[in-house]
Amino acid sequence: MSEKIYIGVDVGGTTIKVGICDAEGQLLHTYEGPTGTGLGTDVILKNIADYARRIVDESPFQWEQVEGVGVGIAGFLDIPKGFIKFSANLYIENTDLKGYLEKELQKIVKVNNDANVAALGEAWAGAGKGVDNCVCYTLGTGVGGGIIIGGRIVEGYASMAGELGHINIVPDLEAIQCGCGKMGCLETVSSATGIIRMAKDAVARGDRTSLTEVPNIMAKDVVDAAKAGDEVASRIVSRAAYYLGRSMATVAILLNPQYFIIGGGVSKAGDFLFDQIREVFEKYTLDPAKEGVKVVPATLGNNAGVVGAAGLILRG
Fold first, then answer.
1. Considering only CA atoms, which of 133, 124, 106 is closest in space to residue 315?
2. CA distances from 305 to 73, 251, 288, 298 (A)
3. What interhelical angle do 231-255 and 192-205 show, nearest 10?
4. Does residue 207 contact residue 232 with C-beta atoms inside 8 Å?
5. Cβ–Cβ under 8 Å, residues 308 and 25
């Protein structure tokens, strides 16, 4: 076999996902194994290297076909050096991930932030395939983001570009403190955590809502209640959509992407959420900056990180 293959590694707090992609971003083979969080940095690094080799051993491909290994990981990174400054989820700090893996695997290794990598996956082989300029939002526990311009990740001076969840957008009178320590971040209202907080606050205030009957409120419960006509839940979802749309209007002026791609668990609300986001975006965006721009759902799901990590070798 002479076909070149690209290995992508998505390092999560519980599981490390590994995938083999071809040069078009098609996912050919996958493998998952435990991360080893809590067992020490050495164990996690060894697992990454072992799983990268194992996936090739279990596939029809040969190690000689591997063109490189890309890794997506959450935390504060020195991206050009592939160095982990601090990863709270993994309890890793001051670690030369790129250096370790290149020594162990004898292949080119590139490392990037997990949100950037997921964005690259969607841009390369998902919802943004064929589009060179797009911005991706991931609506989960927080609000992650990634910016792709000219087909490549925008990293910024200190590897902090694309922190969309920390756009300061909520007015002071409505703002609460974000986990980052600042007030009024997008993440406080448009993440699953933010939606759940607003719902619990409404119940605690005694607002008349069907959510009072839900023992452990999740974001999906709020969306489902809103779809069923619950006025309180509808206001919460509309608030989340409003600030997402407003943030996109700001980003559109700065970057003028062709696509806004939205993924993560909250995005599963579908058109009920997307239609509201699009309406706000249309209202607040300067006409030339919104012409031809689409707000679309992500398509790769949980595979975006693996595919994007593999894509780092070609497009990172």
1. 124
2. 9, 23, 32, 12
3. 150
4. yes
5. no
Global pTM reads 0.89
HEC profile for 209-237?
A: CHHHHCCCCCHHHHHHHHHCCCHHHHHHH
pLDDT (tens, 9 = 90+) of the chain, 316 residues, equals 568 999 999 999 899 999 999 999 999 999 999 999 989 999 999 999 999 999 999 999 999 999 999 999 988 899 999 999 999 888 999 999 999 999 999 999 999 999 999 999 999 999 999 899 999 999 988 898 999 999 899 998 888 899 999 999 999 989 999 988 899 999 999 999 999 999 999 999 999 999 999 999 999 999 999 999 999 999 999 999 999 999 999 999 999 999 999 998 899 899 999 999 999 999 999 999 999 999 999 999 989 999 999 999 987 6
Q: How far apart are the first and last CA of the chain?
A: 25
Tokens for 268? 């599963």
Interatomic CA distance for residues 60 and 64, integer angstroms: 12
Which helix or strand (DSSP H or E) is residue 59 part of? Answer: none
Q: φ and ψ at 101, to 5 degrees?
A: -70, -35
Q: Are the C-beta atoms of residues 97 and 83 closer than 8 Å to each other?
A: yes
* Strand arrangement of the beta sheet that strand 15-21 belongs to: 27-34, 15-21, 5-11, 66-73, 109-113
